[in-house]
Amino acid sequence: MGRSLSYYGVETVDYEYKSQLVRDMVESWGDDLSGINQKTTLFLIALLASRVVDQDASEIDPNVQEVISRIDELSEHDMVCLIQSLAN
Fold first, then answer.
1. 83 with 42: CB under 8 angstroms?
2. Can you give the pTM of this predicted structure?
């Protein structure tokens, strides 16, 4: 069982999530989002991360270019493990 979204600082007003989208996500997948399957989780991580990076990519380490050029060396399993490690 994961932690609730409020643990991570998702904005609330009067003990309710401020964003209607977040409230809808909680209704669909639970307050800890544990009802989401792995592929959907990965998709949402990619989508959200892309939006955050698009807002300001100036702080991305230049060494990430090597990761980009060599990403095909990784198995799907290792990619998921790296995502989990980076997210935690």
1. yes
2. 0.80
